[in-house]
């Protein structure tokens, strides 16, 4: 079924404009959205770092649960978004509208379930995530408000992905940015002025995510996009199978990130609260560096999806090559800067604790060594995911935080002690790069020579 004139114009633009220009234009708002999303965590860490080391460590403990929430929301968002972009590439807007509603409602409903589970098993969950007895009271305070905001967090991530895949990254950026600005404004007000401490950071996040959710919901359907309508919520086994096909790589990637964070917290806790806090800070710093790279890759995704759905495979290959070159140059520049200024970056969050700064600086420098390889790894995963190479995409998504990282973490710790924890991510990045080369080469060579599906 052909959509509106605006939707048809978007189809023409996505399948005819020069791919380099198109990817860059779509990437800019996606980059801003990703940076703004990272600022949610950075803002909390920056202000909470003025309290004490245990509060900073608490953010690292709860981060594992937040990555789990993000994993499931990206499963629904990427899974439904990939389907939507391919459907719009075939100008099938009715099916795209049904998928958008099914993806969003399912995501929010799952968020409510995760909140319920979190409240009834709060302390066991926090202990499992690596909390020590001295960190637990602060983690409990922060976790309470994150659980309240979980359905809104999941809804925001899902709509963010759906809008991007429709080529409406600018609208997604507006929704994300509105919540981030509110979060940054509320953090010092609630943490210090009202004396809520780490509770204030959690409440600020919950309020800002709820605000961002409703802003995004009001923007759905604008600029030729798909409007979210409850009467389009018509779930079926076929739709969920399509969501799974497009969303499993994201679930694997983010889910393993959560598992990796749990394992790292548990092992770092053996070396004291300062170690947990140091790894927590480094994860925030690298999140900012990775945000722009992932945002650029997200600018590639709708171009890939539309053109793959339209059968324009040469444009897909050209967009992929362009994205790999740009993202690799970006990663190389940031790696050099991060290595040079590692100490200053870590001390920005916890200057009063020399041990946290010492550990964090070493960890950050090790990660900078392999960071230039990350651009190709991320682009490869997004490419495989968007052309519906489900299992190669799942393998690629699982590599960096699971297939390679967890063995590197445990084997490295067994052989090298704490140094093994510090270098685990570096080893994992290098091995993931080696895996990405044959997987992508095979997919690029065979694309267009085999039957495609929805």
Features of the shown structure:
17 helices; 0% strand
Mind sketching the topology for me?
Elements: H1 5-16, H2 19-48, H3 53-89, H4 93-120, H5 122-128, H6 136-165, H7 169-193, H8 198-219, H9 237-268, H10 273-309, H11 313-340, H12 342-350, H13 354-370, H14 374-386, H15 390-403, H16 405-416, H17 418-446
Description of the structure:
By secondary structure, the protein is mainly alpha-helical. It is built from 17 helices and no strands. The chain has helices spanning 5-16, 19-48, 53-89, 93-120, 122-128, 136-165, 169-193, 198-219, 237-268, 273-309, 313-340, 342-350, 354-370, 374-386, 390-403, 405-416, 418-446. The mean pLDDT is 86.
For the record, give the distance between the C-alpha atoms at the N and C termini, rounded to a whole number: 15 Å
Please report which band the strand proportion falls in: under 5%, 5-15%, 15-25%, 25-35%, 35-45% or over 45%: under 5%
Name the shape in a single word: globular
Our count of helices gives 17
Number of DSSP strand runs: 0
Overall pLDDT, averaged? 86
SSE succession: HHHHHHHHHHHHHHHHH
Helix percent band: over 70%
Largest sheet: none
Helix-strand makeup class: mainly alpha
| Low-pLDDT segments, ≥5 res | none
Q: Over all CA atoms, what is the radius of gyration?
A: 21 Å
